[in-house]
Amino acid sequence: MLKQSLAAVTWLCVFTVAFVSPPVWPQKPPKRKTPGQLKVAACCEEVKELKAQIANLSGLLGELSQKQERDWVSVVMQVMELESGSKRLEGRLTEAEGKFSEMTNQMDIMQLQAAAQTVTQTSADAIYDCSSLHQKNYHISGAYKLPPDDFLGSPELEVFCDMETSGGGWTIIQRRRSGLVSFFQDWKQYKLGFGSIRGDFWLGNEHIHRLSQRPTRLRVEMEDWEGNTRYAEYSHFVLGDELNSYRLFLGNFSGNVENSALSYHNNTVFSTKDKDNDNCLDHCAQLRKGGYWYNCCTDSNLNGVYYRLGEHNKHLDGISWYGWHGANYSLKRVEMKIRPEDYKP
Ligand SMILES: *[C@@H]1O[C@H](CO)[C@@H](O)[C@H](O)[C@H]1NC(C)=O
Ligand SMILES: *[C@@H]1O[C@H](CO)[C@@H](O)[C@H](O)[C@H]1NC(C)=O
Ligand SMILES: *[C@@H]1O[C@H](CO)[C@@H](O)[C@H](O)[C@H]1NC(C)=O
Ligand SMILES: *[C@@H]1O[C@H](CO)[C@@H](O)[C@H](O)[C@H]1NC(C)=O
Ligand SMILES: [Ca+2]
């Protein structure tokens, strides 16, 4: 519709330019009228009428193009309004996320480029994770940027370090606390990681696999809506590689919460909404709306849907730990973190 009108206007323009506008090429202006020209002007009433018609037409054209412009402007305005609307929303989300981060951590990202330059190419010296940062006297919890390391084959990676809990040195691999990030993601997203490092995120199965290649400890911390906290720790945490569908292996348990909620998932592989690797006829990732080591299906669902207070005890696909609050209780906060087994604070 718009296109057609535009084409019509274009035609009118061509017409008008051809017949109304004086030629633009240089021309000697006639100094005085010759008798022949005078004769033509005097005799041709037809020319006058033609001129009037053309004037009418160009008037019409003007009107038309004005209307076009109005339409166009209103379309542009609408688009801009839509855009600013979605920007506002996005802004509000970012703001909320930002406030959350501010409340819970006061630290800024520390650029470690300088440190990277001084590192010699030995694995003992390399900045591998938050535990190596702790050894280099970075003792403040917060977001850090790990430099890429050719020797270890590790890429640049933004991590969040817990430098306080039971000696610190923990690299956080999962966090739920704001509910602003959906964890109903596909295989690729879980592989590469998603979310925001100061808010809710999954570090990425590839990274977790790489970081767990030396003897590693897993710690899971949870908080319910009444403010009670629990933790579970597992020695010899291993995440297999992608060929092994990121199989989970857990060693010995310690902690102050019932253990089977996670050990039920021991020795099972990872499933997402687009990859059903579970031990069930059902498609657990679809049912529980997350990516996880689904067995048949869950005794815990730490990557489930974030439900807020008031909604948190009505759903089976929430962030649950069956042995603590049961299947229908979605927790308020969860953090999963890892550090080397031989770590000494
Ligand atoms: C110019 O247009 C008006 C109406 O818009 C019409 O009445 C008039 O006859 C037209 N004149 C010519 C020369 O076509
Ligand atoms: C678990 O603990 C037992 C006894 O403390 C020990 O022998 C065993 O090696 C541990 N297993 C793992 C996987 O850490
Ligand atoms: C996980 O399974 C292995 C054997 O496959 C077992 O040795 C280990 O104790 C199990 N871990 C837990 C926490 O149940
Ligand atoms: C969980 O909720 C479902 C349906 O909402 C209900 O059928 C089930 O009994 C509940 N389970 C528990 C343990 O509360
Ligand atoms: Ca299945």
UniProtKB/TrEMBL annotation:
Residues 1-26 form the signal peptide. InterPro entries: FIB_ANG-like (IPR037579), Fibrinogen-like_C (IPR036056), Fibrinogen_a/b/g_C_1 (IPR014716), Fibrinogen_a/b/g_C_dom (IPR002181). It comes from the Eukaryota. Keywords: Coiled coil, Disulfide bond, Glycoprotein, Secreted, Signal. The keyword Coiled coil applies. CDD domains: FReD (cd00087). Its main location: secreted. Pfam families: Fibrinogen_C. The keyword Hydrolase does not apply. Residues 47-113 form a coiled coil. Residues 121-342 form the Fibrinogen C-terminal domain. NCBIfam families: GGGWT_bact (NF040941). This is Angiopoietin-related protein 7. The gene is ANGPTL7.
